[in-house]
Amino acid sequence: MVAMKMRLALVLIIASAVPAMAQAPKKWTSSQRTEMAGRVRAEFERSWDSYKKYAWGHDELRPLSKAPRDWYGTSLLMTPVDALDTMTLMGLKDEAAQTRDYIATHLSFDQDIYVKNFEITIRMLGGLLSNYQLSGDKRLLSLAQDLGNRLLPVFNSPTGMPYVYVNLKTGATRGNVTNPAEIGTLLLEFGTLSKLTGNSVYYDKAKRALAAVYQRRSKIGLVGSTINVDTGEWIDRTSDITGGIDSYYEYQLKCSKLFGDRDCADMWKTSIAALNKYVADEVHGELWYGHVDMDTGKRIAPLYGALDAFFPAELALSGDLERARRLQDSSNKMWNLAGVEPEELNYAEMKITDPPYALRPEIIESAYYLYFFTHDDKYLDMGETYFTALEKYCKTDTAFAALKSVETKEQADSMESFFFAETLKYLYLLYAPRKTFDLKHSVFNTEAHPLRRMW
Ligand code: DMJ
Question: How far apart are CA 42 and CA 65, in angstroms?
Fold first, then answer.
C-alpha cells in the first residue's frame, strides 16, 4: 500500500513537471553569455569600421550605397556622438579615446541650420553629457553647454512648450504643432546640464514644458497625440504609448529616479494608473496597450508596434514586473509573426499594418531590463532570437540595414545612429557581466545614453 502511494506520488510529480520542463528556457552558462557579448561587440566593430571607411565625419552611413548621409546638409557627427558611450561600455578604449578627441576638436554647433530640438537633445545633448560623465573630458561638457544654450529659445512659446525646430546660429524657431514626446523628453538632458553646470535655467524650462503637457491631461488622466504649443490646444485626441507620446511617460519615471523629483513621481503615478485602466488591453489572455480616446477612454484601434515595445522596460523599472513580463511576451509574439517586428501591428487580428523595421532597439531594451530585474534566462533566449534575425535579414557586407518590409525582408539604405547608441548597446549589456553597467545608480536617456546620479 505504501509502495503504491509512493508510485502514485512519483507519477504526479513527473506529470506536473513535464509542462514546466517543456517551457523552461535553456540555461545559459557564463561562457555562453560571454560568447554572445563578443559576437555583438564584433558586429559593432565591423559596422563602426564601415562607418569610418565610407562616412567618416558625417552623420550616418548609408549601408547599401556605402555613402554618407547628413541630416541637415552639414554634419553634426551624429553617429560618433551616439556611438561613443557604447564603445566605452564595450571596453573599446582606444577607439573611444580617438573618437572622443575627434568630436572635441571637430564638432561645432555654430551653424546656420534649423535642427529638430527633440532629436538633437536626446542624441547629441544626451550623448555629450553621458560621455562627459564617463570620461571626465571637460571639452564635452563645454560642447553640451554651448548646445544647451543654442537650444533654449525653443521654450519661448506662450505656453513654455517647445517649438519643434531652432536655428542653431540665430536662435530663430519654427513649428508650433508637436506632441507630448517631443515636449516631455528633454528633462533628463537639460536637467543633467543644470546639475553639472550649476545653472538651473535648463532644468526649469524643460520641467515647465513637461508639466505643461501634464496639466493639459484629460479628466481621466490621458494626453493626446498632437498639440499646438502657441495655443495649448490638443489637435489629435488619440491616446496611446507609441511614438509621439512614448517617452513623455518614460521621462516622468526616470526624472523621479535621476533627480528624486517628487512632481515627476506624482506625474508618473497618475499617468500609469490611467494607462493601465484605459490603454491596457486584454486580448485572448494577452496584455497589449492600444489606442483610445483621451477624454472617454473609448477604444479607437488595437494597434501596437516596435516603438511601443519600450514599455515593458518602464514597467519593470517602476517595479511592475508582472505587467512587464506579460507585455514583453506580447512584443515577442509580434517579433515572431514575421521573424522581425514590424513598425505597427493590429494585435486583435495579428495583422501587420505598417511593415518596415528601422533597426529599432525597444524590444531589446525591454529584454535587457527584464533580465536585469528577474534573472530569467528566457530574456537571454529572446535576445538571441532578435540578434539572429538581425544577422539573417539586416546584415550587409558593410554593416546593418533597415528593412523596407518585414514581410518581404527587402533592405532599405538606412542605418540610423540609434543602432549604435541603443540596439547594439542593449544587446551587448544583456549578455555582458552585470558589473558592466549598474541600472541602480544611473538611468538611460531615451537614446540609451547613461546619466549618472552624481548629485
Ligand atoms: C530613438 O531615437 C529613441 O529611442 C526614441 O525615443 C524613439 N525612437 C528611436 C529608436 O527607435
Answer: 22
Atom of ligand 1 nearest to the CA of 306: 11
pLDDT in tens, 292-329: 999 999 999 999 999 999 999 999 999 999 999 999 99
Sign of CA dihedral 447, 403, 338, 390: negative
Q: What letter does residue 115 receive in the DSSP assignment?
A: E
Mean per-residue pLDDT for 201-218? 98
Nine-digit cell string for 85: 558611450
Half-sphere exposure of 425 (CA within 13 A, CB side): 28
Closest approach atom of ligand 1 to CA 247? 6
pLDDT at 196: 98
- Any idea which residues carry the catalytic annotation? 119, 246, 343, 362
Q: Within 13 Å of residue 302, how many CA atoms lie on the same side as its CB?
A: 15
Q: Are 96 and 88 in contact (CB under 8 A)?
A: yes
Whole-number pLDDT of residue 19:
41
Instruction: Quote the CA–CA distance of 230 and 210 in Å, as a whole number.
Output: 15
Classify residue 413 by its DSSP letter. S
Pairing mode of beta strands 173-174, 165-167: antiparallel
For residue 6, what pLDDT band results from cuts at 50, 70 and 90? very low
**% pLDDT > 90, the chain:** 93
Q: Which residues of 267-286 are buried (b: 16+ CB within 10 A; e: fewer)?
A: bbeebbebbeebbbbeeeee
Beta pairing partners, 364: none
Q: How far apart are CA 403 and CA 413, in angstroms?
A: 9
Number of the ligand 1 atom closest to the C-alpha atom of 360: 11
**Residue 252 CB less than 6 A away from ligand 1:** no
Q: Looking at ligand 1, which residue's alpha carbon is closest to its atom 10?
A: 360
Evaluate: CB of 423 within 6 angstroms of ligand 1: no
SS3 label, residue 419: helix
8 Å CB contact between 11 and 46? no
DSSP string, 328-392: HHHHHHHHHHHSS--SEEETTTTEEEE--B----HHHHHHHHHHHHH--THHHHHHHHHHHHIII
Question: Which residue bears the cell 484629460?
Answer: 218
Measured between alpha carbons, how far is 70 from 57 in angstroms, rounded to an integer?
A: 10
Q: Which of 52, 108, 106, 110 is nearest to 83 (CA)?
A: 52
Ligand 1 proximity of 447 Cβ (cutoff 6 Å): yes
Distance CA 45, CA 141 (A): 26
How far is Cα 81 from Cα 345, in angstroms, rounded to an integer? 32
| Grid cell of 189 as nine digits | 538632458
Residue nearest atom 11 of ligand 1, based on CA coordinates: 360
